[in-house]
């Protein structure tokens, strides 16, 4: 009540403002006038605008494993959609980023490296990934090299919900595949690796 009184004193010079009651006919006439004004504004606006023409976008084919031979995920290739640069995450080092739009389901790059016959000694778990069905493992590259994929350079995330790509075993090779429309993050499995 105190704030209302101070408002009336300050804004209305202390006069008590009362609301005037209107008859049903007056309310109906005001409502009709308001609707008429809104209709005229819409009509004037519509007349000044040209009709919109929506262009239908051509659907892009997803990037498959066979497209990897065309250099989409190969460092130094003219068709490469990935690049390695300093991460935007504080103290994150270098990471792998996409240069063009990537859709869920697109194959991004191969996990390049050596395929040893036995477990490497000493094992460097940071760059080693196992192949399913006891197919061995891959000791990945440690820095971007021409004609190699970026798979081993993708940063690992601590939470599974934050990853936006995953490893897929296909044709006795390991590939990285986007699981979200997308810096690429993945998990290398749960410890022990």
Kindly report the average pLDDT value: 72
Structural class: alpha+beta
Kindly provide the name of the CATH class of the largest domain: Mainly Beta
**What order do the helices and strands follow?**
HHEEEEEEEEEE
Q: What's the total helix number?
A: 2
Placed side by side, the strands forming the largest sheet appear as 3-9-8
The first-to-last residue Cα distance is: 69 Å
CATH superfamily of the largest domain: SET domain
Unreliable spans are none
- Total domains: 2
Biased composition (Basic residues): 29-58
InterPro entries: SET_dom_sf
Region (Disordered): 24-59
Protein name: SET domain-containing protein
For this entry, give a set of tags.
193 residues, 2 domains, Beta-clip-like, SET_dom_sf, SET domain-containing protein, three-stranded antiparallel beta sheet, alpha+beta, 2 helices
List the helices and strands and how they pair.
Elements: H1 2-11, H2 24-48, E1 82-86, E2 94-98, E3 107-110, E4 113-114, E5 128-130, E6 137-140, E7 155-156, E8 165-170, E9 173-178, E10 185-186
Parallel strand pairs: 7-10
Antiparallel strand pairs: 1-2, 3-9, 4-6, 5-6, 8-9
Task: Give a description of the structure.
The longest helix is centred in the N-terminal third of the chain and has 25 residues, at 24-48. The chain folds into 2 domains: 2-48, no CATH class; 65-186, Beta-clip-like. The chain has 193 residues and is of the alpha+beta class. The model has no long low-confidence stretch (mean pLDDT 72). It has 2 helices and 10 strands. Residues 29-58 have a biased composition (Basic residues). InterPro entries: SET_dom_sf (IPR046341).
């Amino acid at each position: 009540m105190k704030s209302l009184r101070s408002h009336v004193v300050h804004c209305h010079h202390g006069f008590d403002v009362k609301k005037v009651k209107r008859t049903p006919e007056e309310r109906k006439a005001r409502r009709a006038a308001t609707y008429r004004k809104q209709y005229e504004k819409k009509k004037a606006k519509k007349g000044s605008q040209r009709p919109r023409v929506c262009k239908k976008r051509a659907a892009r084919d997803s990037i498959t494993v066979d497209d990897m031979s065309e250099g989409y995920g190969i460092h130094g290739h003219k068709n490469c959609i990935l690049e390695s640069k300093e991460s935007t995450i504080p103290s994150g080092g270098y990471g792998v980023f996409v240069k063009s739009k990537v859709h869920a389901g697109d194959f991004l790059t191969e996990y390049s490296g050596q395929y040893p016959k036995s477990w490497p000694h000493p094992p460097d778990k940071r760059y080693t990934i196992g192949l399913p069905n006891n197919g061995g493992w891959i000791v990945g590259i440690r820095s971007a090299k021409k004609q190699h994929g970026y798979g081993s350079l993708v940063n690992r995330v601590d939470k599974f919900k934050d990853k936006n790509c995953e490893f897929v075993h296909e044709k006795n090779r390991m590939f990285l595949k986007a699981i979200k429309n997308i810096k690429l993050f993945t998990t290398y499995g749960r410890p022990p690796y």
